[in-house]
Give the backbone structure.
Amino acid sequence: MKTVLYPGSFDPFTNGHLDLVERAGLLFDRVIVAVAVNAAKSPIFTMQERCGLIRESCANLEHVEVVAIDGLLVDSLEYYGADAILRGLRAFSDFEYELQMALLNRNLKRKCETIFMMPTLKNSFVSSTLVKEVARLGGNFEDYVPPPVADALKIKLGIVK
Ligand code: PNS
């Protein structure tokens, strides 16, 4: 039984994230989406809201669990008995930050491996930050997020169409 832990702030969960969860499900028996705290970010959705939206977005996928985590990621890896951390790589610009995190996590726990997967090209430019910006500025963001997230974003940002 192979388990992968997919951590992120997911504020909000995008089609790029969903793409990765689906891909990971082909390789692992259990995919745990771990909604985590990124000390550098101020999310617009609460932890509970983010977990709920991911659960709704992944409702048709088997072997996917959604959990909220705090503290060090490497401790959650052990707690959930996961074999590896999964992170997405969209562009070369992601690489430096991801390399730093992967190496730091392995330094914190020697057996902590991080694997990277690339989303399909049409999702490779999608980021939570850009989705929020487009939504705030009145652009069409619905193609980039699962329907439950699109609805929640409209409510959160007071967008009435
Ligand atoms: O989606 P994000 O914001 O890029 O995810 C970053 C996240 C949440 C995975 C990272 O900030 C994290 O692992 N936070 C948990 C605390 C921790 O272990 N920090 C050290 C990571 S090197």
Notes: The CA atoms of residues 20 and 26 lie 10 Å apart. The chain has a mean pLDDT of 96. The chain has six helices and five strands.
